[in-house]
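User: Hi! Is it possible to get a structure for several chains at once, not just one? Here's what I have:
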Amino acid sequence: MSEPSWGERARNTFPGGVNSPVRAFRSVGIEPFFVHRAVGSRLEAEDGRVFVDWIGSWGPLILGHSHPAVKAAIAEALEEGASFGACSPREVLLGEEIRSRMPWCEMLRLVNSGTEATMSAIRLARGATGRDKIVKFRGCYHGHSDSFLIAAGSGALTHGNPSSPGVTAGTARDTLVAHYNDLDSVAALFKANPEAIACVAVEPVAGNMGVIPPQPGFLEGLQELCQRHGALFLVDEVMTGFRLSRGGAVERFGLSPDLVTMGKIAGGGLPLAAFGGRRELMEQLSPLGAVYQAGTLSGNPLACAAGLATLQRLDDTVYTHLEALGAQIEEALTAQFTGLPVRVQRVGSMLTIFFHDGPLYSMRDTETCNTEAYARFFRGMLDEGHFLPPAQFEAFFLSMAHSQADAESLVQAAGRQARLALGA
Ligand code: PMP
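Assistant: Yes, the chains can be modeled jointly so their relative placement is included. Here is the combined structure:
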């Protein structure tokens, strides 16, 4: 009898063989590879195949895999202990670094995942406003806490429907769902729910339905609607924070949020996230205020060290480089896809190749994507040595480790594989 594979062992131990669903590669119809190690832009699988990685752990690795400075910072912190459950200086250093980049984040609290950050931020929003309802956008993802696993229902003006079994109808009653890039849909919710909405949560550039940029005026309009109706404006920067500029999307688009959430890059590849905002709001958190929030491993010294080492390397030259690399890849891919129903959408170093004719503005447009062609495209690209997001409605994350050669190889392979995937 041959030894069972990692895949077989994993499927025996974890539901679907994974600890997060997208890793199962279900949307692209193959079994996932197992990673042996990763350095720079390269992932090496257990079976010896090497791929250029265009995901970077879904965003955190803006410096690439195994960056020497990040590794050294983690090793140095580890010498002093892996967790204390008590105050330590690295938390303060990371917190100050974040505040210096995001001055609208007058105070913040460190947590362990983006899910925790957004879950805690809406609790604070509800506690501070004394209102129960929140607004989210169809297709935006803010982690897997109950309040966010809500789809638009037939009674969308009054409440949403659970998008997962296990989320109660009671919870769904308090989440309202609007359409991205559609201010009228938000205004209608405010009108139908007077003085009931605590906050509006938004991905400032949508990445979780594939990259969908905010249309000019959308984010500003949301901010204004929130102000007018006494709701808090919650910008979820888990994906965009420290990626779209030194201070994230808020800086890039010139916004003034009440609350922001961040994660991914803030932890440099280790589990760390945060939420923050105006001082008088944040002071309502325990132990100063009555809104409860806590965490055994929050502010973990290894994660703080990795986050700090990463952020300290993110200066203007990094963002200029990533913008140029992104623009170059977008332009070259778009040229390759001339005459094909394939569209590239990009903001900074976030990009999606949609098997779709014409621009996409909201989740409504994603419904006409050719996901079967994307699955064939993904498999073809993997055979050519490029690891793309294993689902159509996800983003590529460019990093400082991607070389010109990586970019050129991606573009050439994508041109060939898109044609094959479409039978063109
Ligand atoms: N918010 C956004 C915008 C995200 O993209 C994600 C994860 N991709 C989350 C929240 C949840 O973060 P986590 O997976 O760390 O819980």
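Residues 316-336 form the longest helix (21 residues). The radius of gyration is 21 Å.

User: Great, thank you!
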